[in-house]
């Protein structure tokens, strides 16, 4: 019987772990759509979302923006490249601190890679003085 070298064993084990991680979604972007149980809940006060800026709600991994006065948008804050949380918008752009992907704060469109897909948009509405996921 031929002897199996250490590199071959480690390579096969690494491939198995990597394959399992891909199947489990480990290390990739999060599934689209809001977290279970968040619909209908206030996620942030409208006053906390500046015009031309936004706010990351870490608890829900959501970013809420206000591109123009009175217009609120929400997106998954999970970068579509590897799932790191993007930062709050600066000058209309949300940047992923892990690999530098950039997304438009008004529509979630990917402006700069390595990500290629837009952030997942979530529907929101203003209810009283809060922003609620629809």
UniProtKB/TrEMBL annotation:
Residues 41-133 form the Rieske domain. Its cofactor is [2Fe-2S] cluster. SUPFAM superfamilies: ISP domain (SSF50022). InterPro entries: Rieske_2Fe-2S, Rieske_2Fe-2S_sf, Rieske_Fe-S_prot, Rieske_Fe-S_prot_C, TAT_signal. Pfam families: Rieske. Keywords: 2Fe-2S, Disulfide bond, Iron, Iron-sulfur, Metal-binding. Gene3D superfamilies: Rieske [2Fe-2S] iron-sulphur domain (2.102.10.10). Iron-sulfur subunit of the cytochrome bc1 complex, an essential component of the respiratory electron transport chain required for ATP synthesis. The bc1 complex catalyzes the oxidation of menaquinol and the reduction of cytochrome c in the respiratory chain. The bc1 complex operates through a Q-cycle mechanism that couples electron transfer to generation of the proton gradient that drives ATP synthesis. This is Cytochrome bc1 complex Rieske iron-sulfur subunit. The lineage of its organism: Bacteria, Bacillati, Actinomycetota, Actinomycetes, Streptosporangiales.
């Amino acid at each position: 019987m031929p002897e199996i070298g250490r590199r071959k064993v480690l390579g096969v084990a690494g491939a198995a772990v990597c394959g399992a991680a891909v199947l489990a979604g480990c290390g990739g972007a999060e599934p689209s759509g809001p977290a279970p149980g968040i619909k209908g809940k206030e996620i942030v006060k409208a006053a906390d979302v500046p015009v031309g800026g936004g706010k990351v709600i870490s608890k829900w991994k959501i970013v809420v923006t206000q591109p123009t006065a009175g217009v609120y948008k929400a997106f998954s804050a999970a970068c579509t490249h590897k799932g790191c949380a993007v930062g709050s918008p600066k000058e209309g752009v949300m940047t992923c601190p892990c690999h530098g992907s950039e997304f438009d704060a008004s529509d979630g469109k990917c402006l700069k890679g390595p990500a290629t897909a837009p952030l997942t948009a979530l529907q929101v509405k203003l209810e009283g003085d809060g922003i609620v996921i629809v």
